Amino acid sequence: MGVDILSYLLSDSAFDNGAPWTRLAVGEVRRGLQDILERNYFRRIWIVQEAALGRRICLQIGHISISWHAGDEASRFLRRIKLLEISPLWQTSGLRDIDFKPLTELLEQSVAFRAKQTKKSNSPTWLDIVHSMRNMQSTDPRDKIYGLMGLASPAEVAGFVPNYNLSWEETYRRFHDHACLAALQENKL
Q: pLDDT value at position 52?
């Protein structure tokens, strides 16, 4: 199950009712992801260097493997994990405590290394900020997005106007679409 979810996150497929986490029981999703993310593999220091320096990263899980290329594909994988972790479905379904950090840390090092190599800016995006602050508290969950707009670049938030008439779910969908469009415009999704 965990491999299916990670493979889905590696794909270009939409976060809709076809996503594995929407059709599987919460316990199956949790067990599948924890089986992968809690492995000692992610605790080894040399893995960080291998993930950051490798052009193609292959994660072997039993007889199954998933792989991605460094650069844009790693960046897209990281963004999709972040979008999943802040999604209303993930936040309210009892899955928010699944710790993707072992994988996201490797992906962040890979993305940072590529940015350094290509001399591209690696400053945090609005998605990065919202994701890193997702566990902060707010009375209104929409403020977890609106309250961080001032930390993003004006170009990133252009056209995104706070609207408290929308539900938390609608606000997230708008943010998701906005973040995906921004990534596409930067050729990162």
A: 84
